[in-house]
Predict the structure of 2-hydroxyhepta-2,4-diene-1,7-dioate isomerase.
Amino acid sequence: MRIARFSIDGNVGYGVVEGDASVEGGPVLDIIKGIPYGDFELSGTKVPLDKVRLLPPVLPSKVVAIGRNYAEHAAELGNEVPEVPVAFFKPSTSVVGPADPVVYPSFSQELHHEAELAVVIGRMCREVPRERVKDVILGYTCANDVTARDVQQREKQWARAKGFDSACPLGPWIETELDPADLAITCTVNGETRQSGRTSQMLRPVEDLIVHITEAMTLLPGDVVLTGTPAGVGPLHDGDEVAVTIEGIGTLTNKVIKRG
């Protein structure tokens, strides 16, 4: 099931995406009554997908991201593979949706893309045992952990480098029926493939990451966990169109613009 968050005529809601581009009339949204956490009902009111604006699929209280979870990515930046997961935060204000712009921060000269599988939490959870991880996950979406690489290297901690406004595109929707163990993940910039990997290359799979994070903190419905990026990260410039595609989910596309 694909769950999207959308806006139409000034109203914001959630809907289930039905059909695809090959179906006559294209995909539609069956609007959800309420919110998609726990049991929910479909209203039966259907709207063509191309008549709505897709929003970030969730508004998380926090985004917990994992760095250096692919060995080749750690190596390409001259880093060792960490003994334990490297966790950091991206604030809720960094989240944007599909087709929203990534605004190049004024304090950086080197912006990079990082294509990632994002885990969306479906229920409040703390100290989750590995065998129960699937029970707390609503689904998965595409993410771009946009990074001001020069700032990350200069400041040694990552709050500004990875937390600036628009640094966390998410979307286009949440796929609830997906095995994340071995999915193709790619990133293109202006149609050129920059990153191409598989989630099976993660040093630590989704289950281990959720266990590690929830040892320390409570995750709330709608919170997002970013699982790391494969090798191939590289620069973004004003006017670039960057697209993250994950097998079984879809494509998240954003354009880079300069502020002002």
The two ends are 39 Å apart (CA to CA). The mean pLDDT is 95. The chain has two domains: 2-54, 63-258. The domain at 63-258 is CATH 3.90.850.10 (Fumarylacetoacetate hydrolase; domain 2).
